[in-house]
Structures are given as C-alpha cells and as structure tokens.
Design a protein that fits this description.
3 strands; mainly alpha; 7% strand
Amino acid sequence: MNEPDLLSGTALAAFRLNGQFLAVAEALARPAGLTAARWQVLGAVLHEPLPVSDVARAMGITRQSVQRIADLLVAGGLAAYVPNPAHRRAKLLAPTEAGLAAVDGITPAHAELAARLTRELGGPVEFRQALETLESLSGALDSLGARGE
C-alpha cells in the first residue's frame, strides 16, 4: 500500500471510528438525559473548572461549538460559569451537582462497555496499544500543524 492510500485508509477508518464512538456515546448518555456532546463537555470539566477555550482545544473542536454546548449545560442546570482568577472575562465552566449526578448515572454502562471492548480487543495490553497508536497518530498530525504540510 502506498503512502497516499495509507493516509486515505487511515482517515476513513478514523471517520468510521468517530461515528461509532458518537453512536455509542449517544446511547450511553441518553438514559442520563444527556447527549454525547453535553457528556463530552461535562467530562472535560469534571476534575477542574476550565475556560471554554481550553475545553475546545482538548476536544479538538471550535470554541464556538463548545460555547454553544456550555451555554445549554448552564441553562439546564448541569454546569455553571464561575469566576476565573486568571482572566476576568473568560469565565470557567464547572459542573453542578446535577451535572455530576448525570455523569455518575452513565458510569455503570460506560464501565460495562469498557470491559466488553477490552475483552473483544484481546485484553488491556491490546487496548492500551490501540490507544497509544491513536495518540501517536494525533501527535503526528499536530506536529504537521493538522494541515497536512
């Protein structure tokens, strides 16, 4: 397989994987009253409040997309904007008790899926290798400036 075919095949596999993860995330989040996108943004701030721009950077999506979801989470009482000591205008997004409870409601089904997927992949070592490969690919694209230079 030549390099352009490897790039195309990898991109198509990643797009398919993204779609599969989104479908699984929607199914896991739905019983907790969340969408995959809302769960993803809440998950980004579970351990520490963050500015929307930091959440967007970590997720690899636009700040505007995260801002829209963050505003919906705040309107729904699942998150709140709190003062940012490092920046007066860029508030931090933090989960509320209701937001934490919603994410906690997903945890058992998430753990069950993780265990099933680990077995399907052949064990935790193989799962870790898959993660490391994906992280390596992402890092390589970051090094290229994600523009394919």
